[in-house]
Structures are given as structure tokens and as C-alpha cells.
Amino acid sequence: MAASRPSARSLLGLVLLIAAISGGTQWWHATAQQRAAEHLAAVARPGDIRLISSTTCAYCTQARLWLQKNGVPFEECFIEKDSACQATFQAHLAPGTPLVLAGGRALLGFDPQRVLEALQSVQGSSRS
């Protein structure tokens, strides 16, 4: 008995289903990012977020641009240009940049939701 081949119609249906799922996932991610941006901009105060960067780090540039675009106050230093920045970076034993200090908590890499959670946990514990 020979295996039946899928029809063009069923393949088209599968492609459309995959496209719909992909589009929905991208929309969901963009919506979550926007919510995180709004919350982070509302919660963050000057001095709460410090971005420890490298001049050659593309992820650092992305983080900087995201923070600027969304109006989130932050400070940034570069490990190649500032010895105090380099010392802070080394003290945290970070394997790479960006290193984000959010309310004093060290986070490797930049994820707006993690930064928001770190700030909220610090602010929540200071209210107690």
C-alpha cells in the first residue's frame, strides 16, 4: 500500500496555521514588552538602574537604546573607560556585559521584566 501524499489544500492550511501562531506569538511578545516598558518607566527613579557596559557589546547598545526609547532613567558606565566601573564589574564576577544593577541587585544581561521585578522586590522590602 502506497503512502498518501498530503494535498496542496492541507499543506496550505498547515502553513496558514503556523503563520497565525507565529503572528500571535510576536504580537503577545510585543504587548508584554510594551507593558514592561510602561511599568518600568513608572517605577524606576534616577539612580535605580545602572548599566555596566562594554564599548564593543551589541547587547549593551540594544539595552541602552531600549531604555532611552522607553524613557526609563538609568546610568551607564563602560568597563574600558572607567576603572570604578571595571572594579564593580569584576566584583560581581560577571562573565560578560551588560551587567544591570537594578536597585543594587545584579542581573546578567538585559531583560526589562527581570529589571522591573528586581526594582519592585527592592521597593517592596523597603516599605516593610
From TrEMBL:
A Pfam family: Glutaredoxin
Domain of life: Bacteria
UniProt-listed Gene3D superfamilies: Glutaredoxin
InterPro entries in the cross-refs: Glutaredoxin (IPR002109), Thioredoxin-like_sf (IPR036249)
The Glutaredoxin domain, residue ranges: 51-105
Protein name: Glutaredoxin family protein
